[in-house]
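Bug #2210: token dump truncated for Autoinducer 2 import ATP-binding protein LsrA?
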Amino acid sequence: MPDQVPAVRLSSITKRFPGVVANRDIDLVIARGEVHALCGENGAGKSTLMKILYGMQRPDEGEIEIDGQKVSFRSPADAIARGIGMVHQHFKLADNLTVLENVILGAEPTRLGRIDFAAARARIREMSQAYGLRVDPDVLVERLGVGDRQRVEILKVLYRGAKILILDEPTAVLVPQEVEELFANLRELRAEGLTVLFISHKLDEVLSVADTISVIRRGTTVATGLPASGVTAPQLAELMVGSELPTPELRESTVTDEVQLEVAGLTVRTAEGRAVVDEVSLRIRRGEIVGLAGVEGNGQGELIEALMGIRPADSGTIVYGGEDVTGWPTRRRREAGIGYIPEDRHRQGLILEGTLWENRMLGHQTRRPNSRGPWIDKRGARRDTTRIVREYDVRTPGIDVPAAALSGGNQQKLIVGREMSGEPRLLIAAHPTRGIDVGAQAAIWDYLRSARAAGLAVLLISADLEELIGMSDTLHVILRGRLVAQVDPGTVTPEELGSAMTGAGRAGDAG
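Reproduced locally. Full output below:
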């Protein structure tokens, strides 16, 4: 039974930025020893509120209480000292350090005046096994996929002994079995008195793991302390965005006979000679969405890089629109109409310090409306960015603000608008709805459906199995760099697909 004194109490929190009120009179009470979910659209004010609780920003008005005591955080170090840990949606890791070095950084155990790496390694292995996080403490972070990076972030917070844990979209990269493992561990930690603030746009997960739920809409709380047992996903969606919960579905087929991309025997090897993409063959026709399901780190990233010309293929061919493009550089592929939504919008999709109109040009700077001959056409880029903001509902004060000022969902809509504006014939979409709310998610599904109906060929990579099943005409499973199964999106379940992804079961025939 949670203690009478709440772990966290936020009272009348208000935070203003030039031209916008991010938080307005927000009240939030989180009981000790509970999993409390915070829901809301991207741009609703969740991130700002969490930055205030974690000491990254200071409120203009309002009070924060931790365990019944008023506090004033000037930095995250103050919050950490009070037992608050935060796992950010976008990771805060040093690529050139090992997992162990990242986890202990700033909290190094010592023995006889030296860092006790043996003790740290033993503790990390013990925690990794206890929480089902399965990471190697001695591997360099730069070699990890997105899923493993997320697990390192969770380990890093737990290592510091956090009693109040803020998790921002922690399941975005996990398959259903891994999600269940994480939730089981969260329930165990809750039983031991840990308080968890769980931020997610996946409402079924919220209802599965949370004890209570609060909803923020347009900067203020519209519902607080709702018992998860007494509310439904459609009700939560309506509180968040004023409409019913969207579902990924394609409805009628638009697949044509015209093959837009044909990959044959494609192999990509590491510097050590290991095949990370192993004899992959697939084809995508115009008007078709081909889904690719796989646990993070099974060759998806290397396959995408080979298709985009970022990484050379060791063998095999890539034929695009009837032309062999295997040896083409990335720029030539882009100019030929290959659009690309990268898996990590911060590291690969945007220059966060750049303005929206400058980001509109990325990857398309040699084509109209961004250029005239050899010259950048600033006026054309600005005009088209204004159009993208309007047509793709990018919520922003203007096109001259830096991309970093936008919420995750609005950053993603800007990227989607940019790539769709290049009139692509093939779109490689890696995790296009990762970490965004139901409103932005529904909008991106609509854009993909419309483009598919107009003849776009799409390769869709996602960790959201419901999305893959609902939005794919054809669905492949990749495991250790090989396509091991082709399944029917109309009949396969997320559990069957998850089993095929981990090699634990068969969801279809090898393809």
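Output looks complete on our side. Residues 176-191 form the longest helix (16 residues). Marking as cannot-reproduce; reopen if the truncation happens again.
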